[in-house]
């Protein structure tokens, strides 16, 4: 198993944490599995920061003896930015029809489409999965549709609205596109996993069930 992401409740208090826990850790087995998703196999742990801090930390963590390069994250940090996201493929078809004129007006006025401005495919906690294929929300065994917990995706924005300002490279020659990354910078951003053809692993939970069941989808 390799560590994929660790989030603290103090950074993302909107996420569900079981009582007594304040750290969310996602690990996965970095091989391609012969299950429905056909990708790395994630495992989610909710822990207490105090207990983790009191424990021993290995100075030389073991590396898996075999792994798929596309699911093997390189060490990196996250700097969460809070944003309001709107649905992409989860928008009902008739609503897309009704809003199409307003979408055109937005694109005319701001030079970016609704999808570029209001939805994002990058790694995120909360919001909507950045479905590349048709939405495939899992149901919990209690009958409830599960909530999107977080997504780990291969796509990192290198320009435009979602480009992290602290990674800003030289100014773009086309000012309307906003800041653009220096390519040597882009190559160093994030976990570096290709995840198939720039796909993503989406994790879902049911906070209504006491044992907080979770599952995942792989989209590519
Ligand atoms: Zn495995
Ligand atoms: Zn449930």
Structural summary, described in words:
- With 220 residues, this protein is of the alpha+beta class.
- The protein has one domain.
- The strands form 2 sheets. It has a 4-stranded antiparallel beta sheet with strand order 4-5-6-7.
- The two termini are 22 Å apart.
- The mean pLDDT is 89.
- The site of one zinc ion has 7 residues, from loops.
- This is DUF1963 domain-containing protein.
- It comes from Streptomyces kanamyceticus.
Q: Could you give the topology of this structure?
A:
Elements: E1 2-8, E2 23-29, E3 41-47, H1 49-54, H2 93-110, H3 114-118, E4 124-125, E5 147-153, H4 183-186, H5 195-198, E6 200-205, E7 214-219
Antiparallel strand pairs: 1-2, 2-3, 4-5, 5-6, 6-7
Radius of gyration (CA) equals 19 Å
Largest sheet: 4 strands, antiparallel
Low-confidence parts: none
Mean pLDDT, to the nearest integer, reads: 89
Number of domains: 1
Record the strand order, biggest sheet: 4-5-6-7
Structural class, by secondary structure, is alpha+beta
**Gross geometry:** globular
Strand-residue proportion: 15-25%
Order of H and E elements: EEEHHHEEHHEE
Total number of helices? 5
Give the N-terminus to C-terminus distance in angstroms: 22 Å
Ligands bound, unique: zinc ion
Helix percent reads: 10-25%
Number of strands: 7
Protein name: DUF1963 domain-containing protein
Organism: Streptomyces kanamyceticus
